[in-house]
């Protein structure tokens, strides 16, 4: 199993718009494309309280490439993203890391 950690740093004040987009649109589209989430988190204490961190679970890099590519080019996603950003940009920066569990990890 491969886990992808993605951190979205929002434009100040726009975290609620990002959370709404995930809750009302993105997760449904991920389900359509077979993308499995492994947890969502906001920052309680840290560098910025305008961040969303989440994890995705992939069987392989090939699965990620296929499913993520299909999602990113889905006309429903492109339309929903454009509509959600009608009031302005939401995300200022995205950091993504692909992680593999260690032999002693409780998450495999």
From TrEMBL:
InterPro entries: Dimeric_a/b-barrel, NIPSNAP
Pfam families documented for this protein: NIPSNAP
Domain NIPSNAP residues, every copy: 3-105
Domain of life assignment: Bacteria
Gene3D superfamilies: 3.30.70.100
Signal peptide per UniProt: none
Protein name: NIPSNAP family containing protein
Organism annotation: Bradyrhizobium neotropicale
